[in-house]
Amino acid sequence: MIHSASFFGLFFMLLNGVFGDTDGVKSVSVMEGDSVTLNTDVTEVLRDDHILWMFGPRETRIAEIHKQIIDMYNSNEIFGDRLQMDSQTGSMTIRNIRSEHTGLYKLQIISNKGTSYQRFNVTVYAPLPVPAITRDSPQCSSSSSSNCSLVCTVMDVSHVTLSWYKGNSLLSSISVSALSISLSLPLEVEYQDKNTYSCVINNPIRNQTQHLDITELCQTHTCADQRSSFMMAVAFIALLVVIAVVAVKTRNEEMHYAEPAFCTRPLQSMDVFTEDHTVYSNVVI
Ligand SMILES: *[C@@H]1O[C@H](CO)[C@@H](O)[C@H](O)[C@H]1NC(C)=O
Ligand SMILES: *[C@@H]1O[C@H](CO)[C@@H](O)[C@H](O)[C@H]1NC(C)=O
Ligand SMILES: *[C@@H]1O[C@H](CO)[C@@H](O)[C@H](O)[C@H]1NC(C)=O
User: Fold this and answer.
1) What is the pLDDT of residues 197-245, one digit of tens each?
2) What top-level class would CATH report for the domain 2-125?
3) Whose CA is nearest to atom 5 of ligand 3?
4) pTM of the prediction?
5) 123: enclosing H helix or E strand
6) Measured in angstroms, how far is the CA atom of residue 174 from the centroid of ligand 2?
7) What is the average pLDDT across 138-159?
8) Which of 87, 193, 203, 210 has the least CB density, counted as fewest CB within 10 Å?
9) Using CA atoms, how far apart are residues 167 and 197, in angstroms rounded to an integer?
């Protein structure tokens, strides 16, 4: 007697588990472009079963199977040809899913065992960009001499976390939710640091990693290089000024010198003038 009662109880619980009026929400995370299947957990749709899928806050009917006939309503307006309903199970597959398909999907199953509902909270995530690591202060006068300042950046992201790792341990992180913005996260390392650092962007499904190459990005002589090239530029400009001044002076002197020559011996002075003109051009170049 007891045995059969508990058996009945177990049997009833199983029925309840499959067809019960469970009002919990199943969370589904999927990357844009991927396919996702929302399962009914029905093993075989019977002739009198009625399975209906709805989408969004207005519970728009998007797919139905009733008397073993599938009706996709006007789902192509929202989903194009992405929706597919399995006639065996009533499960629904969305292929090549887009971000606008994020939202609440409601499933209603009417069978001879009663009516049940399920809800699926589907979140579609955009592909992750690869983080970029750059030197933070190229003018290097503001950064301390023993440290190299870096920054990790990602552009136009939402629902992601950006983190710096030293080996496997998390150093710092920053998160963004709905808004599509650019994120950057600074890091200070010593020039001689031999640890491995990486900048990681992740959402609940995927991650993208960029490893830091300290020797490439943090060459100690970057500052010196910049200073010496600045000094070279200054020297070059100074040289140009000197040349210009000399040229002007030379021309004035030549004019002064050529004038009396021109007055006294016109033929020779033509030769002198041509010669002077050639010399002057060479100096300017
Ligand atoms: C759906 O999931 C998102 C993100 O996980 C959450 O913010 C939202 O509140 C959920 N909606 C429902 C109705 O559970
Ligand atoms: C240099 O960086 C280390 C971490 O790598 C940090 O502990 C230290 O305070 C920094 N020093 C300066 C002067 O910013
Ligand atoms: C990134 O994803 C891989 C699997 O794709 C996982 O093994 C790894 O732990 C993840 N890394 C981080 C930092 O989340």
Assistant:
1) 999 999 999 999 999 999 889 875 555 555 555 556 656 556 666 566 6
2) mainly beta
3) 206
4) 0.64
5) strand 114-125
6) 20
7) 79
8) 87
9) 6
